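Incident log, structure service

09:12 report received: a user says their structure output differs between two submissions of the same chain.
09:20 pulled the input from the user's history:
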Amino acid sequence: MKRNNLKTNRYFNHFVLLAITLILAGCETLVENPLVTAEDDTKMGGDRMTFAEGLGDGTSGCSDCYSGTEKFGELTYNGFVYTAEDNLSTFGVDVDNGSYTFGRKKINEGHLPPQASVRVEEYINYFRQDYAAPINGPFSVSVDGAPSPFRGDSLHIIRIGIQGRELSSDERKPWNLTFLVDISGSMTSRLDLVKQSLYILVDNMQAGDQISVCTYAGKVSTVLMPTTLADNEKESIKGILSDLKAGGSTAMASGLQNAYDVNMSGYLEDAVNRIIVCSDGDANVGATGHEAILELIASYVEQGLTLSTLGFGQGNYNDYLMEQLADQGNGNYYYIDALAEAERLFTEELTGVMEVIAKDVKIQVEFDRSQVIRYRLIGYENRDIADDDFEDETTDAGEIGAGHRVTALYEVELSGTGTGNLLVVHLRYKLPNGTTDIPVDIPVTRNNLAGDFTGASMRFQFTVGVAEFAEILRGSPYVSTSLEEVESLVSQALWGADDRDVEFLELIRKVQAID
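09:34 re-ran on a clean worker, output below:
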């Protein structure tokens, strides 16, 4: 969008925010959701606007708890779909991994994560993969499979993997980042971790990037207007962050509006213009209804301003809102459970966090009815796209950052007959500044599948173990595997030098020790 339209849209957004605040403030409804059984589940069922609540079973003795209710999206499960009825499965990609690090924090403190907090795809996408680097285009696509190690030869697991292209330092765009820090009372025990996380991010930014800092509690404040970063200014900016203190209620919507105004004042052409929200998601003053906040964010995406969220804390944590904010803002959602996670995120993953290489990436898998009897997409329950919307260029879907990897697993039942393509993976995406979908089609035959599970790559085997672990945690009606079986599989398949893999094996063992 042209720069001269931004000012007009900003004033319009102020008007919309005021109107929505008057209508929706205090109207959010929380719903305790029943478990969706195999019989009740539909293809991608579930009302996305309701909540499941965690009422403290995972907060006693935790290091950064605050009294309240934890909120998560509705707990639903993708069921088996018979290809005779529908042979198309369509969804948007997801590179978030906040669900995994949130669950890790719970387990490390001696508690099982609430079932509704577990999103299988985010557990899987936390880990490195063995996908080939792209030769042409922004990403590569890999497909492999093998018989399931848990359900016998009657079912196979198929893995679809996307590997984003790494960017060179010369390709890196300038960044105009606005840190929006929640300094409300509930953040008191978490604010030090927020500051330390942002120190790492500041240290890894480059001269010429811009930083601004805004806060919100009962009122909003601009602590630092957009400032061009020079090496000798990093310490002074960290000093500004160090002075932040927590206290008061939480006017998130007003804080967001102010952050957008500040970021817009330093808008850079052909750059990353992004809001980074650091919060527990507990909005209790102003337009706290999530629809109001999401509409505000969407209006700025159209103007070139994106938004990512960094989640902190437990007890009152609103996982659902933090994920939806980032999703609506065409950014990423992360949960910072410890300083080590911030170090990983803002060193190893930093370019991928900031630099989008493909947007509105959606996948449609077309199964051959003569060879595939039924299928089940494992995870991605809240990334459903209607089959008819796949070729609609206005359909919003996920973004892929530089170096990001995306994995989707299907559980399928194969027939003993049929030749030709077992399935075709159709993808559509746009370039970062594009408006037209680019199609990609990947045919898959039985030759892509290993004859037995041990014949598949070690990374495939490890990934299946991660998915099964997440399915057990969320109480999936489609698994009856023991944690001991998962531990055995993972211990044989992990990359011994990868600290993430080793830590994951320890998490499996810790869960077995939790009463």
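09:41 both user submissions now match this output. Likely a transient worker issue. Closing.
09:42 reviewer note: The chain is about 30% helix and 25% strand. The mean pLDDT is 87.
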